[in-house]
Structure formats: structure tokens, C-alpha cells
Amino acid sequence: MKPPTKAVLFKIREDIPKKWYWAGTISTFIILIIIWKLMSMFNLVQQTFLPSPEDVFFTFIQLITAGDYWSDIWISIYRVFMGFLLAAVIGVPLGILAGTFRITESIVIPLSEFIRYMPAPAFIPLVMVWSGIGETAKILIIFIGSFFQLVIMVADNTHEVSKDLIYASYTLGANRKAALMKVILPALLPKLFSTLRLIMGWAWTYLVVAELVAANSGIGYSIMKAQRFLNTDVIFVGIFVIGLLGLLIDRCFVLMSRVLFPWTEGGR
Fold it and tell me: What number of H helices and E strands is found in the chain?
């Protein structure tokens, strides 16, 4: 592999050869695993708190082959997707309206700005009172953690649609509804898709919090149960599984974005 010059590798926002992109990605993970292995080998952190990479790998194989862990994975995926979909179904239209009409912005955005700084775990007692301790409570925690961020980001995306496009549509005879549906919404879609991709990542970060609500299944529950017995290898497996699932879903968003919006930049 012929090394490229610095001028090629460090051009601002310019593409580099794919083999060098992947070389950088793979090298990062290899270096992290080597550092982890050295810390474990030289007991820089006690084995109880930092198991070796091979111990975590063997624990992962044991859990996956046992079968029960798959049910934890699927129920966690279900909770995340339901919380995310609920936030998207309500939050996207609200965000578009808030980014389009000032009166809607005055009602929606200040309240969303206020609530989004409240930590989602603080709502757990209220959610348990309102909806019990079933699946609804867990989905609501993920919804609360995602919804208000989504509304604000979608409103910002809508604000970024050029007014010139809207004025041009008026000049061509469009009314308010046509300008919204045929100008603002199509111009918004690529950025909206990127926003949904980010919110999906946040939804996964709230999974462990959601599964604190009287759960007896799920990846977050398995992590919390392992914590009680200092089974740190199981904790690491749970963290890595969440990261892997999130990465796979993120890549699906990227591929869908390339198919739906091939004219846009990005999609790494």
C-alpha cells in the first residue's frame, strides 16, 4: 500500500482512498484492544474490575450459545425501537410545524428547551406511577429521553430550508399548504434523516436507564444484575453488544440515506 502524502490525507473535507479510511478505522480498534490487553496483563487494574479481552470474548460466546441472551437482545431492540418510533411519530410533525410557523415555535420550543435538560432517570418514579412497571414504562423513558431533543433538532433543520425556495414557490402560484408539502418537506428530508439517525443513537443510550424500571429481561437488566455480583465480563459483553447493535443500525441508516438521497454529501 503506497502511502499517500499529507496533502492528500489532511485536505479539509476531502475524500481519501477507501483503503486508508478502513486502515484508520481498523487500526483504532486494534490499538484499543492492545492497550486493554496490556492493562489486564500487567494488572494495572484488578482483574475483578477489568477482565482480559479473551475472557470477555469467551463469556460472549457462552452467553450467545446459551440462548437466553438472545431474548434479552430482542426485548431491548423492541423497547428502543418503540420508544424511538413514538418520539418520531409525534416529534417530527411538531418540529416541522415549529420550524415553519412562529406561533407554533413559541408554544413548542421554549417548553422543549426547558424539559430537555431534565435527566430522564428523574422521571422514573413518575412514569411508574403513571403507567405501572410494564413495557409501557420502559418505552416511555426512552421516549422522554429522545422526544424533546428530536423536536428541537427537527425545528432547526426546518429553519435551515432557504426562504428563497419558499418565495419562489409563492411566485409560481403555490399556497401555504403547497409550499409546506412540496417545497419545505422535500428540502428538509435529507437533514431530517440525519437527525433521526442521531436520535436513534440517543435512544440506545437510554436503554439501561429504561430497564431499571422493574425489569427482569433485557441487556440493561443483565448488566445491572452482573453488577451486583461483580461479573464485569458480563457487563463488558452487555456494553459491547449494545455498541454493536447501535453500529449496525447506524450503518443501516447510512445505507438508506445513500439510496434515498444520493445527491447529498456524507454517509460515512
Answer: 13, 0
pTM metric for this prediction? 0.84
Three cell numbers at 238? 452487555
In the structure, what pLDDT confidence band is assigned to residue 8 with cuts at 50, 70 and 90?
Answer: low
Q: What pLDDT score does 267 carry?
A: 46
Instruction: Mark whether 119 and 217 lie in a shared domain.
Output: yes
Residue 59 lies inside a defined structural domain of this protein? no
- Buried b or exposed e, range 224-251, using 16+ CB within 10 angstroms: bebeeeebbbbbbbbeebbeebbeebee
Neighbours of 44 (CB within 10 A): 10
78 within 8 A of 178, measured Cβ to Cβ: no
Q: How many CA atoms lie within 13 A of 170 on its CB side?
A: 6
Q: How many other CB atoms sit within 10 Å of the CB of residue 25?
A: 11
Please tell me the predicted confidence (pLDDT) of residue 221: 86
What is the domain-level CATH number for residue 136? 1.10.3720.10
Cβ–Cβ < 8 Å for 207, 142: yes
Domain containing 181: what range?
66-260
Burial class (CB in 10 A: 0-12, 13-18, 19+), 164: exposed
pLDDT confidence of residue 214:
67
